[in-house]
Amino acid sequence: MQSGLVFDIQRYCLHDGPGIRTTVFLKGCPLRCAWCHNPEGIDDSPDILRNAARCVDCGNCRSVCPAVLMAGAPAGAGPLASENQAEKELSRCVRCGACTEACPAEARRLVGRSMTVAEVLREIMHDRLFHDGSGGGATVSGGEPFMQVPFLLGLLEACRSREIHTAVDTSGYVRQQDLLAAARLVDLFLYDVKTLDDDCHRRYTGVSNRLILDNLHALGQAHENIWVRVPLIPGVNDDPAGLEAVVRLAASVGGVRQVHLLPYHATGEAKYDRLGRKHADGFSPPAESAHQKVAGLQDLGLPVFIGG
User: Fold this and answer.
1) May I ask the CATH class of domain 3-44+115-306?
2) Segment 249-285, tens digit of pLDDT
3) Are 156 and 182 in contact (CB under 8 A)?
4) String of DSSP letters for 213-271
5) H/E stretch holding 38
6) Which residues of the chain are in CATH 3.20.20.70 domains?
7) H or E, element range at 21
């Protein structure tokens, strides 16, 4: 039975495809989007989220931490003496999760656990009543689901055998043969297109958009239900000309049925702090609302929506 590294399973989701959905988040992503709101999904290994507000400075975490003990600190050491000491110990963290088990205040949480297809399917089946009553189903997201191809295909096969509607949320930066192999098992693709400007794409995501756009055209020939999703990032890709170009491109791809604009939000910024990582500076609020932007895009060949 295939196993995958899952960092969250969210129930009663309304923005990851039609109806009420169960969304499964897989770890690992080849992009480094400056605005990422799921930074705990980027690495393909477990992460530790720290909640300083819950910490009671008992020192239990340090007493069981291999990084601390290997550095010569005495077992049972108390609170950290300085921020520099904290940074040094954080840089040595091997994400083993020992501190999360030792913490009495639940100030630390291990994000990312290995689950079999059967275990994930069992979680999805708990919501079957809501799926059937709303026209919903299961959505696989991330990170990038295609970073775990065998597990993804196994989960999609299992859902199809139970007649569960499936959606996959992808960046499109994947091997084309993997994308097309999954197409027969997926009812809906949620396909991200950030910008058509390759230089801009490289600057803010770390990769070129050429593979993404090539894959969109190939997928459009093999699949009949694709929703293009555009994260609206102020000052990056929210200019009218750029958005119009994306919608026109989407309308030229046969399998694309809708375009969704996803307004920027800063909910992921706090997660970077809890992961002990630096995040990009916050983006300025947009001058125009998403509703104003949509008004100028409705006559380009496809329906354009906000959110979802």
Assistant:
1) alpha beta
2) 999 999 999 999 998 887 788 898 888 888 776 676 6
3) yes
4) HHHHHHHHHH-S-EEEEEEE-TTTT-SHHHHHHHHHHHHHSTTEEEEEEEE---TTHHH
5) none
6) 3-44+115-306
7) strand 21-26
The rounded distance, in Å, linking the Cα atoms of 11 and 13 is 6
Q: CA 96 to CA 206: how far, in whole Å?
A: 28
Specify whether the CB–CB gap between 298 and 290 falls below 8 A.
no
Residues in contact with 234: Cβ distance below 8 Å, sequence separation at least 6, in sequence order: 264, 283, 284, 285, 286
CATH number 3.30.70 given to 47-111? yes
Dihedral in degrees, nearest 10, Cα atoms 233, 239, 244, 250: -20
Confidence of residue 288 (pLDDT cuts 50, 70, 90): low
Q: What is the largest CA-CA distance in the chain?
A: 68
Rounded Cα–Cα distance for residues 135 and 2 (Å): 28
- Rounded CA separation 256/45 (Å): 33
Where in the chain do CATH 3.30.70 domains reside?
Answer: 47-111
The residue among 177, 159, 161, 173 whose CA lies nearest residue 208 is 173
Q: What percent of the chain has pLDDT over 90?
A: 71
Q: Write phi, then psi, for 90 (nearest 5 degrees).
A: -65, -40
> Within 13 Å of residue 158, how many CA atoms lie on the same side as its CB?
21
Q: pTM score, two decimals?
A: 0.90
